[in-house]
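I have been asked to look over a protein record a colleague put together. This is what I was given:
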Amino acid sequence: MASLKANIAQESAVSTLHGPVIIVSCPGSGKTTTLVRRINRMIEAGIDPKNILMVTFTRAAAADMEKRYRQLYGAAPGVVFQTIHALCRNILVMEGVIGKKSLLNEKESQDMIAGFLEGRPETGNSGDLAEVTVKCKRREDDQDDEQEHRDHA
């Protein structure tokens, strides 16, 4: 990995030990490196890694951040790298809004869609294909996030 010279804003983010930090900038400007350096600085300052949550938008970005951290500093037991979707799902599970097993698997999703398309009433759907599609997509995303949560548990 090429060494980037950090600017004043990046150094400020790295040295901020408490509270959230949001970094918005163009691709390739050092966002991931800055956040990874911040995590290391927090751990070096004595913050328990279990109290560090790194949230990003995509699973790929979360995996990249964790990979980069490991490459630069080794394992980070306790630090959680996850998507905003996984975070929200975990909060809903913790608060009892949804169960850990409340998601459809791929076959169940396909059966539900097939049932809707065939007009079978046992699918329990309202008859709105757009609504069914959205529900199926949400469940697929939830399954991906559940797998991500298991991978990081």
Observations:
- The longest strand covers residues 53-56.
- The first helix runs from residue 8 to 15.
- Helices lie at 8-15, 31-44, 59-73, 84-94, 106-118, 129-152.
- Strands lie at 53-56, 80-83.
